[in-house]
Design a protein that fits this description.
Elements (H helix, E strand, L loop, with lengths): L7 H21 L6 H22 L7 H8 L3 H12 L3 H16 L6 H7 L5 H12 L3 H9 L1
Helix pairs in contact: 1-2, 2-4, 2-5, 5-6
Amino acid sequence: MPHLTKDVNIAETFERSAVFGLADVLDSEPELLTQSASRTSRHWQLVRAVRELVEASPDCPLTVAELCVRLRASRRTLQYAFEEALGMNPFLYTRAIRLGKVQRELQSAASVTEAATRWGFWHLGNFSAEYREQFGELPSETLRRYRG
C-alpha cells in the first residue's frame, strides 16, 4: 500500500478522514474523555478549523495572528494545539496545506505561476524552494509529469 500514499488525492483524503474521524469520535464519546483527552479533542477541533479556514481563503493566506482572531484562541493555545496534535507549528501546517493544494492544482493548471498565485504564493523563488523541500521536486517538474 505504500504506492497509494504517492497519489496526492488518496493521501489528502486519508489525512482528512483520519483527522476528522478522530475529532468526531472524541466529540461523540464524552463519557470516555478525561481532562487530558478533552484537551486533545479541542486541539484537533482547532486543527480542523484552521484547515477549513485555509481552504476557504486560497488566494489570501491567513497569518497565525489572523487565525487566532477568527478562532478566538490565543497564539499560545494554537501553538500548543498544533504541537500536541501534529508535532508542528500552525504556520508550517498552513504552508503544507497550501503547497499540497498547489500540487493538486498542477494537474490541470496552465502554469506553475497560475497554481502558485491561486494559493497565495507570490514570491515564486521562495515558493519553488518550499515546494521542493516538501515534495522533493520542483513545481515545474510536477507540472511536466502531469502533462507527460
